[in-house]
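Researcher: Good morning. I'm working through a list of sequences from a screen, and I'd like to move beyond sequence-only analysis. For each chain I'm collecting a predicted structure so we can compare shapes side by side. This is the next one on the list. No need for commentary yet; just the structure.
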Amino acid sequence: MRRLATRRSRRALAALAAVLAVATLGGCGSSDDGDSPAAGDGQTVADAPTPGGDPLPEATSAEPSAAPAVDPCALVPKPEAEKVAGTPLEDAVASPESCSYTGPVTGPTAQLEVYVGDGAKKILDIDRELKHEFTPIPGAGDEAYAEEGAVFVNKGGVWVAIRLVRTDDPVKYRKPLADLAVAVAGRL
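Model: Good morning. Structure tokens for this chain:
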């Protein structure tokens, strides 16, 4: 007897849920009182009242915060990236705040990355927290530093980080990276 009552309760709850779902969906269309927008009545979703009665806020375009005014790939053109890396590289893969050149799939392993803006400064800050050793680079912007496999340049408040990945001795790339930092500072 108890199982029968439980089944009836479950069926009743399921039926009630179905009725509520239909009623809710039915309320999404037009209404006779004119309070909610109907399809084609000229109102936008932003004008539609919310359950509290207030219209939704206007949609705004999401603008990136502190977008760099310079193109990272223009700061380090492919021929210069190849010169620093010491090997041919694939064409650049660009995004608004970075540019990457990778070595061909046939080798050797190589990648040169250029970051501009807040992300470049964050890389430097993290490396400082990790107690990396830095060497100042004279003549490169307002301030510039080199570490193993990377250089950081600041000119006029714009930070640039350039990282080079190679599998051979990093000492071989110190001077080319420092020279690139001076050239990039001149382009900012």
